[in-house]
């Protein structure tokens, strides 16, 4: 009789311990990041481009890291330098807050103007905004393919000057996940360094 009572007691205690452990795990587990405004979108895909050091870079080289991507061009007179400066400041602030998480973010600049944005031209350009900013260029066909895959609008504006032309393009900061899937974007309108930091703090984990 006592054995049966003891067995029931141990069973009750065991269930209580399991429930307590489960509740404790639920209480202290890291919460899931909320879905971003690009969750479920079909943007992105594989690419093979050339970085500012003249080396081939593929999308798979960033596997396991978050990708903070901006499309623009080095000869842009205003929008691109302004946005990239904000990206650099926002990422630096996030790195200061969370060094380990900041190291998981790869900042990437992809040109829409491969004719002028050679690796030699990109090297000092990207270095001005963040020490880890990767600048990518390629052949016109490669750049055309990557802009289409990532849903980026870009068109050369005919100004009658073969060298000092402008590019009309969409201006957004994209965040992609470690698996290469799109998470969120921030448009040029109203873009701030704080918004970049907040986006990273919300989705990078």
> Using only CA atoms, what is the Rg?
24 Å
Shape: globular
CATH topology title: Glutaredoxin
Task: Just name the CATH architecture.
Answer: 3-Layer(aba) Sandwich
Structural class category: alpha+beta
What is the helix/strand order? HEEEHHEHEHEEEEH
Task: Tally the helices.
Answer: 6
Mean pLDDT score, rounded?
A: 88
Number of domains: 1
Count of individual beta strands: 9
| End-to-end distance | 54 Å
Strand order of the largest sheet: 2-1-5-4-3-8-9
The CATH superfamily title: Glutaredoxin
CATH first level: Alpha Beta
Oligomer state of the chains in this structure:
single chain
Amount of beta strand: 15-25%
Helical proportion, percent range: 25-40%
**Unreliable sequence segments:** 9-30
Structural summary, described in words:
The protein has six helices and nine strands. With 205 residues, the protein is α+β, with helices and mostly antiparallel strands. The protein has one domain: Glutaredoxin (3-Layer(aba) Sandwich), CATH 3.40.30.10. Strands 2-1-5-4-3-8-9 form a seven-stranded mixed β-sheet, sandwiched between helices. The longest helix has 27 residues, at 2-28. Mean pLDDT is 88; it is low at 9-30.
Describe the structure concisely.
By secondary structure, the chain is of the alpha+beta class. It has helices spanning 2-28, 79-97, 99-102, 119-127, 140-149, 193-203; strands at residues 48-51, 56-58, 66-72, 105-111, 134-137, 154-157, 166-169, 172-176, 182-187. It has one domain (48-203): 3-Layer(aba) Sandwich (Glutaredoxin).
């Amino acid at each position: 009789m006592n054995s049966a009572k003891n067995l029931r007691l141990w069973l009750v205690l065991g269930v209580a311990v399991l429930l307590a452990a489960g509740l404790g795990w639920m209480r202290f587990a890291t919460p899931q990041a909320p879905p971003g405004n690009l969750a479920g979108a079909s943007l992105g895909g594989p690419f093979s481009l050339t970085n500012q050091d003249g080396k081939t870079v593929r999308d798979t080289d960033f596997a396991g890291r978050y990708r903070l991507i901006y499309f623009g061009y080095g000869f842009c007179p205003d929008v691109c330098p302004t946005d990239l400066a904000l990206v650099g400041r926002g990422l630096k602030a996030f790195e200061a807050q969370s060094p380990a998480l900041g190291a998981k973010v790869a900042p990437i600049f992809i040109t829409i103007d491969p004719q002028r944005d050679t690796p030699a031209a990109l090297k000092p350009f990207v270095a001005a905004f963040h020490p880890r900013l990767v600048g990518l260029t390629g052949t016109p066909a490669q750049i055309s393919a990557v802009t289409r895959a990532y849903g980026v609008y870009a068109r050369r504006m005919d100004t009658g000057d073969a060298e000092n032309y402008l590019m009309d393009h969409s201006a957004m900061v994209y965040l992609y996940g470690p698996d290469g899937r799109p998470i969120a974007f921030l448009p040029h309108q109203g873009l701030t360094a704080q918004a970049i930091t907040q986006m990273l703090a919300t989705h990078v984990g």
